[in-house]
Design a protein that fits this description.
It is a single chain. The chain has 10 helices and 2 strands. The chain is mainly alpha-helical and 279 residues long. Strands 1-2 form a two-stranded antiparallel sheet. Helix 1 runs antiparallel to helix 2 and helix 9 packs antiparallel against helix 10. The longest helix is centred in the last third of the chain and has 37 residues.
Length: 279
């Protein structure tokens, strides 16, 4: 069941109804006050024993109330994150937006976006999963940098080569893995993944860059349209303020996208340079 996003301006009386796509670059979940949902006695029932409706309700209660611990809660429910769960959460956002100010919805939207991202990662091709892993290495906010850009690119190159060659080339401590499995642990993630085709990686990243280029062109056109409207001064004060907010959000979105795409282009260049690796 696909999550349908409302199109155009949505209003409920005189109050704006917010959709996830209308809120640009929300703050980190831990920094946003999220309307809590009362806990239920169903917490005592194992998640796997619940029917789908109860399970989705339980998951939404837990992730919404997780706050700064969201990243530790998500892995518990990763296998149950699907389109239906996102739709239920989206409906809750719509309901909240009808009775609360926009700021009260932003926390829920941040959670929705994080779950959407998790679902996309789960359903991604091996090449896109690898790209996601590589971007986490190279695309580090300045305030969290602990290494140089060159060092991060070298680390990404090593990760890329391991992925293209496959887990059989990696050193493995058989006895440590056996001990972990005997104690109920999970096998290392890298052993669960097969090699990624370099040729497929290059092709999918090139396609991604082409799509991103088209999106950027569309955003630039919208940017110029807003600038023109503001110059002509044909809007009322309230509408002009909204246009200026959209203008600034578009500028930030374009700058952010271009920064990420620069990293993607560098990774693509490295992948192409590894042509000696069998694909």
């Amino acid at each position: 069941m696909a999550l349908k996003q409302p199109q155009g301006d949505q209003t409920e009386g005189s109050r704006e109804v917010v959709t996830p796509d209308q809120i640009e670059e929300p703050e980190p979940v831990a920094d946003i006050p999220i309307p809590s949902i009362p806990q239920e006695k169903a917490d005592e029932v194992p998640i796997e024993e619940m029917d789908p409706v109860e399970r989705r309700t339980r998951i939404i209660i837990d992730v919404v109330n997780a706050g700064g611990a969201l990243e530790t809660v998500i892995p518990k429910y990763r296998e149950y994150i699907d389109e239906e769960l996102l739709e239920v959460l989206f409906k809750r956002i719509q309901t909240t937006a009808q009775f609360e100010e926009k700021s009260a919805v932003e926390g829920l939207v941040a959670v929705w976006r994080r779950l959407r991202s998790e679902l996309e990662r789960k359903n991604a091709t091996p090449a896109m999963k690898l790209l996601d892993k590589l971007l986490k290495i190279v695309n580090v906010p300045p305030e969290f940098e602990e290494s140089t850009e060159h060092e991060r690119l070298e680390e990404a190159t090593d990760t890329m080569m391991d992925a293209f060659i496959g887990p059989q080339a990696q050193a493995v401590d058989i006895f440590a893995i056996a001990k972990d499995l005997a104690e109920g642990g999970e096998p290392p993630e890298e052993l669960m993944e097969g090699p990624v085709s370099r040729k497929a990686f290059v092709a999918e990243v090139e396609e991604l860059l082409e799509d991103a280029k088209k999106s950027t062109v569309d955003a630039q056109k919208r940017l110029q349209s807003i600038k023109k409207q503001l110059r002509e001064n044909l809007e009322q004060a309230r509408q002009e303020t909204a246009l200026r907010r959209e203008l600034e959000a578009l500028r930030m979105k374009i700058d952010s996208r271009e920064a990420v795409m620069d990293h993607v282009r560098n990774l693509l260049r490295v992948a192409k340079s590894l042509s000696h690796i069998p694909t």
